[in-house]
Design goal:
The chain is α/β, with parallel strands linked by helices. It has helices spanning 2-11, 19-28, 43-51, 97-111, 131-139, 163-172, 189-194, 201-213, 231-244, 261-267, 276-288, 317-331; strands spanning 55-60, 116-121, 149-156, 178-185, 217-224, 248-253, 256-257, 295-298, 308-310. 36% of the residues lie in helices and 14% in strands. Helix 9 runs parallel beside helix 11 and helix 11 (276-288) packs across helix 12 (317-331).
């Protein structure tokens, strides 16, 4: 395993590298042995082990929208989503995509002389565009591959992944690791309809399979504390993510933001949010049921103070992480401890069915 890390680390600085081989190494080498690892796999240390340097996200707004905003599936968006589509709104304010990337790289380099960068297409559903537009959007990162872009992350919905979109992403994945961030949110179709997601759990499952066939890694999104989706709902969502063997997970508490459907419910006293103690217990349940090799990209939700109505404890990310570690320690548990191993799932604990790329 040590040689795998070393070869990956040096290859990432070589522009001539064959990126599918690097992605294969990245997936094969990502989990430390249980005796060395903390009770869950977090993103920061994993990035440094994988890429051999500090890695930072640069959020990008490509000006996309969603099918539950334009009437294809609904209007007004998800109940928790603000008018910026959980992003920066930079393009709408006049900052072109290439400039967003360059400004982001400049900001990162002021903090880190030799950084890696994740180009993160964050706002709305980034594959909900014509293929020509998607190619144009993705082309922005091409000049920066390896210097300093080490991965591309594309947020989208499971019902907006056309064959042409997957082809575009798959082509880029031949040169740089591509993560598709898929919103599941809750593994309950009734809950998904009630919060105006307007897709199904089965659509999420199918989308994961199709991403794998295109050579893409998947990061599943989940929200704990949605109305109608209690503690057992959190457990069910984790089980689905484990069954799908997603490579990464972003999980956070339900937040109430200004200019959302949930703001009206919250102000009317019809919506409650979890306190930190309850959230940590639910989160521990969730983590126990995830695949032990899935990388946790996020454990709490946050938003700018001017936009965030409740709760406010999510900004204390380190405290939540420490509380989670303590909760698992009290239980004598760890990530994946309640997952039944699949046949042949032994020392290599990464999810089976990872991105279909050549083996090293």
């Amino acid at each position: 395993m040590t040689m795998g890390w070393i070869s990956t680390r040096f290859a990432l600085r070589d522009r001539s590298v064959h990126w599918p081989q690097i992605l294969a190494r990245w997936l094969d080498c990502r989990v430390m042995s249980p005796s060395m690892s903390p009770p869950f796999v977090t993103l920061g240390p994993w990035l440094r082990r994988t890429f051999g340097r500090g890695v930072h996200r640069v959020a990008l707004d490509a000006g996309s929208t969603c099918p539950n905003r334009d009437g294809t599936r609904g209007f007004g968006g998800c109940a928790y989503c603000d008018v910026e589509g959980s992003g920066t709104g930079a393009l709408r304010s006049g900052t072109e995509l290439a400039e967003q990337l360059e400004r982001g790289i400049e900001r990162v380099r002021r903090r880190d002389a030799d950084p890696g960068v994740i180009a993160y297409f964050q706002s709305y559903s980034n594959t909900y565009v014509q293929s020509d537009r998607l190619r144009e959007v993705l082309a922005v990162v091409e000049p920066r591959i390896a210097d300093p872009v080490v991965a591309v992350s594309v947020a989208t919905r499971p019902d907006t992944l056309s064959d042409s979109a997957l082809e575009c992403l798959g082509e880029l994945a031949q040169r740089v690791p591509v993560w598709v961030e898929l919103g599941l949110e809750a593994a309950d179709d009734e809950v998904l309809e009630s919060i105006h997601r307007f897709h199904t759990v089965e659509e999420f499952r199918r989308a994961v399979v199709r991403c794998r066939a295109a050579g893409l890694a998947v990061i599943g999104h989940a929200i704990l504390g949605l109305p109608g989706d209690g503690r057992e709902g959190a457990r069910r969502t984790a089980r689905v993510l484990a069954e799908c063997a997603v490579e990464g997970v972003k999980v956070h508490n339900l937040m109430v933001l200004r200019r959302t459907r949930f703001e009206r419910n919250w102000r009317a006293g019809e919506l409650a949010v979890l306190d930190v103690e309850t959230y940590v217990e639910w989160l521990a349940d969730f983590v126990e049921r995830l695949h032990p090799g899935a990388v946790l990209h996020r454990l709490t939700g946050d938003a700018p103070p001017a936009q965030r109505l409740a709760p406010h404890w999510g900004v204390h990310k380190n405290e939540v992480r420490e509380r989670l570690a303590a909760a698992l320690e009290r239980r004598g548990s760890r990530q994946g401890s309640l997952v039944k191993p699949a046949p042949g799932d032994g020392a290599d604990t990464r999810p089976s069915g990872g991105a279909q790329v050549p083996k090293r």
